[in-house]
# Entry
Amino acid sequence: MFTIALIASKAQQTSQPMSAFPITLLQLTDTHLCANPEVLLKGVATRCALEQVIAAAAGELADITAVLVTGDVAHDGSAAAYRQFERAIAVFEAPVYCIPGNHDDPALMGEILGPDSVRWPVEVGLGDWQVLLLNSHVTEREGGELSSAELRRLEAVLQRSEAAHVLIVVHHPPVAVGSRWLDDIGLANGEALFEVARRDGRVRGILWGHIHQQFEGERDGIKLMGTPSTCVQFAPRRADFAVDGQQPPAYRWLRLHADGCIDSEVRWVDAALC
Ligand SMILES: [Fe+2]
# Structure
């Protein structure tokens, strides 16, 4: 509870006036940085991979409105890993919004990254769109859950928001992704999230990390997007944990349109030198 309270204390409501659509978002997820940048995670140097992903994304997307970082920033929850991340994202002029994953230490993460380098918003207003970042971190558990306080907050933000469209961002997937071991450690109360979204009627997309593979789907008219890691990927449709050695690091871009449509693609990055 302490860590969640700390994040909430750093939370802010951010509103950016938008004059032009589409809104371009860059998602980076599961960077898994370690205190020692030379350490390999399943054969991948995670800091090197992140730097190459950022270079590729910055080269492709000249018009980034905001960067969304969806958790597992540090593999080891160390202060040194968060400082490396802070240096790596300094290249972005756009604001960077960040939520914790199961590997993170939310209190330490907030202490080092927020509020100057990374913002800890509960809600980001981008023109007609409301982007809502949810904290699904549960201390010492791999799986995630939205606390009753977080669900109440979600409902309260939706109630007072005048936005026409909503994008929800969370670390853990609210639906099964087809791998038993991952589905056992997803968002325990994903149905509660869908219930709120259905009642509200303005949620156009849900975006997550955690699964280290690409997922595209739709439910109740809501676009569902799971994004590969900036480092190691997991093999899809497996009963037990398995690394996918064939897939390189990746990022995802999203374009939010005035009519509520979301265009999005995953970009794989050749980081062979890492
Ligand atoms: Fe991860």
Summary: The domain at 2-268 is CATH 3.60.21.10 (Purple Acid Phosphatase; chain A, domain 2). The two ends are 38 Å apart (CA to CA).
